[in-house]
Specification:
By secondary structure, the protein is an alpha+beta fold. Helix content is 23%, strand content 23%. The chain has 9 helices and 13 strands. It has a 6-stranded mixed β-sheet with strand order 1-3-2-4-5-6. Strand 12 and strand 13 form a beta hairpin. Helix 3 packs across helix 7. The radius of gyration is 19 Å and the shape is globular. It starts with 8 loop residues before the first strand and ends with a strand. Bound molecules: 2'-deoxyuridine and zinc ion.
C-alpha cells in the first residue's frame, strides 16, 4: 500500500518482516526513516530507529522548518521520543541514529538529544548503536555516552499523568468525550504535556485541508534548551500520520495554555505557523487553568520498578 511508505510505527512482527529481527538489525529500517526526513535547510537527512519495551519499533526523522532559525528544528531523536509519547509508550530500550548520508554509519546523538533522552525512566540504560560500514558495531549505554549530566526530577517523561487542566470561561463548557472540537483535542494534548520544571503545560491541535487532525504537547528538559515546543510536537504527529503532506496544508490550529504561564507558547507558535502553515491558516489560543477539584481526584504514589524509583498517578474512585 502507498501509505506503508510513510510508516513511523512498526509492530514487532512488521519490523521482523523488514529484517529487524534483533538489535544489530535496527539499521535495516534506516533508509526508510531517512527518506522521510524533512531537511530543506541543511539537506542533511537524519534517521533514528528505536525499540520500545513493548517490542514495537519507532522511527524518528529530523524536521527543519523552512525560513526559521535552526533552533526550531526537530532532531530525529526528539522526533522518536515524541513519537513514543504520542503512542503511550513507557520507555526506550534501543536506539540507532544515522550519521552518514548513505545510512551506513551510526553514532551517538548530539549533546542536546542525549540530555533530552534523559527525561525518560531508565534512560541511562538505553543502548545506542555505534557502527560504521562493514562492521557489526557495538551498543553503548546513555550512561556511558553522557557521563556528566543534568539529572531530571520526577515525574519522568512517558509516565502516565494528567495535568487536570480545564478550559477557562465559556470555552470550558462540558463537551461530549467524542466531540470534534479542535480546542478539546488541544486541551487533551495539554493535559499530557510534560512541564515539571516551569509548570506551564501546553498542547496544540492542527487540522489539514482534508479535515484530518493531529496533536502534540510541550515536553520540557531539565537542561531547558533541549525542550520541545507544542507546535513541534504536533508537527511530529503531522509528519508521522500525514502521509507526506506539506506544512502548507495546515489550515487550522489551536493552542491551549495557561493564562500568564511562566513559559508562554503563544508568540512562538504564531510566528512558526505564520512562516510554515497555509497563508490563511486560522490560529486560535484558548486559556486553561488547573482544576483543583479534578486534581483532588488523583493521588501520586511512589513506586519502585526494576529497583528504580518513580511515581504512579492513580485516579481515586469516589463512591
Ligand atoms: O543528533 C542530531 C544532530 C543533528 N540532527 C539534525 C538537525 C539538523 O536538522 C541536521 C543538521 O544538523 O541534523 C539530528 O537530527 N540529530
Ligand atoms: Zn540532536
Amino acid at each position: 500500500m502507498a501509505q506503508d511508505q510513510y510508516k513511523f510505527v512498526f509492530t514487532a512482527k512488521e519490523a521482523e518482516s523488514e529484517g529487524v529481527t534483533e538489535p544489530f538489525r535496527l539499521p535495516n529500517l534506516i533508509t526508510k526513516a531517512m527518506s522521510l526526513a524533512r531537511a530543506p535547510i541543511s539537506r542533511y537527512k537524519v534517521g533514528a530507529v528505536g525499540r520500545a519495551p513493548s517490542g514495537r519499533i519507532y522511527l524518528g526523522v529530523n524536521v527543519e522548518l523552512p525560513g526559521l532559525p535552526l533552533h526550531h528544528s526537530i532532531h530525529a531523536e526528539q522526533f522518536l521520543v515524541t513519537n513514543l509519547a504520542l503512542n503511550s509508550e513507557k520507555g526506550l530500550h534501543l536506539l540507532a541514529v544515522s550519521i552518514s548520508t548513505d545510512g551506513n554509519d551510526f553514532g551517538a546523538p548530539c549533546g542536546n538529544c542525549r540530555q533530552f533522552l534523559m527525561e525518560m525512566r531508565n534512560a541511562l540504560d538505553i543502548q545506542i548503536l555505534l557502527k560504521s560500514k562493514h562492521e557489526e558495531g557495538s551498543f553503548r549505554s546513555l550512561r556511558f555516552l553522557l557521563p556528566d549530566r543534568f539529572s531530571p526530577g520526577s515525574p519522568l517523561l512517558l509516565e502516565k499523568h494528567d495535568n487536570c487542566l480545564t478550559l477557562s470561561g465559556s470555552a470550558g463548557e462540558i463537551c461530549s468525550s467524542d466531540c470534534s472540537h479542535l480546542k478539546c483535542k488541544a486541551l487533551a494534548a495539554a493535559n499530557n504535556s510534560f512541564s515539571p520544571y516551569t509548570n506551564s503545560p501546553s498542547g496544540v491541535a492542527l487540522q489539514d485541508d482534508d479535515g484530518k487532525w493531529y496533536r502534540g504537547w510541550y515536553i520540557e528538559s531539565v537542561a531547558s534548551n533541549p525542550s520541545l515546543g507544542p507546535v513541534q510536537a504536533a508537527l511530529v504527529d503531522f509528519v508521522a500520520c500525514g502521509l507526506g503532506k506539506g506544512f502548507d496544508k495546515i489550515v487550522e490550529v489551536v493552542l491551549v495554555e495557561k493564562k500568564n504561564a511562566r513559559v508562554s507558547q503563544e508568540g512562538t507558535a504564531k510566528m512558526i505557523l505564520d512562516t510554515i502553515a497555509a497563508p490563511n491558516c486560522d490560529f486560535k489560543v484558548f486559556h486553561c487553568y488547573e482544576d483543583l477539584v479534578k486534581k483532588m481526584n488523583y493521588i501520586t504514589i511512589p513506586e519502585v520498578e526494576n529497583g528504580k524509583k518513580g511515581y504512579l498517578v492513580r485516579k481515586i474512585i469516589r463512591q
